[in-house]
User: Fold this.
Amino acid sequence: MTNPVFPGVPRIESPLFAQDSLADLTATEQVIARDLNTHGFAVLDFPDPDIEARIERIKANLGPRFDIPFGDRAADKTRGERRVQDGWKFDDDVRAIASNPQMLNLLGKLYGRAAFPFQTLNFPVGTQQAVHSDSVHFSSLPERFMCGIWLAMEDVAAGAGPLFYVRGSHRWPIVTNAMIGRRGFGEELNSAQDPFAEAWKALCRANGAAQEPFLARKGQALIWTANLLHGGSPQTDPTLTRWSQVTHYFFDDCIYYTPAFSDECIGKLALRDIVAIHDGEARPNRYLGEGIEAGHYSKNARPKGLSKDSNSGLFLNILKALRN
Ligand SMILES: O=C(O)CCC(=O)C(=O)O
Ligand SMILES: [Fe+2]
Assistant:
């Protein structure tokens, strides 16, 4: 249900959330909506009767892709490549988890727009990633129409480097290049997150915020909102695995882009060419119901015909596209 006053804000992040009766949601869904609004995350059992079998098939299918001695209990599991991006392209179970219809339906109700999955990540062990917000990798205009769903594919022990979150951090400013005084458009970086690391740490310190580990049970899922700070705790026992799947979702009728490589203030956006995983259909960048000129900008690339210093950019193209 879209709020008539703020249709451009996700329902669960609306400044009018307290006035929302949530009458169209079940009691369980209402708890999830309130958790997302208050804490920036919500925990639920993954709504798929076949989840156990899917998880085991994924481990069997993806396991051999890693150079990790899974069969040797005492061996170090933290070496080599430890993630598969977009496994949905070749693994039906990864795709089924990403496309779970109950989840899509729930996200649609929670955000007030139809949700679609666009990226999957599968991890056999913890990521040990520093605290960050995914919003520098993928964001939307209007903002916050993005979320992640993290699925525990085994019980997570404290020594296995659990996922952690910073409760309430979704309400802090979304850190952008403009805020940290950096140009992003046309930059090439190995880690899109690095330039923002100090800012996120400083916000955590200033708020006295704790990194709370999620000691999940196999089959539990955690939804995180677009700006929730999270990461992977240090792995104190390198012999443990920590299988998980992260699926990232966008919502209809938005511009989808990479903020780490954008300068929003001067209209330079690294647009994304998004395909929805569940139906295989492209989701062209749209603003207020109208398409904008996609293809002029691509991830981490300069717009055709524009020099690095040019100030003309996306907004001109949006205006042109809307006039046409
Ligand atoms: O599983 C983790 O440790 C964190 C994963 C993560 O941050 C992500 O996929 O965005
Ligand atoms: Fe993340």
Remarks:
- The pocket of fe (ii) ion (ligand 2) is lined by residues 132, 134, 230 (CB under 6 Å).
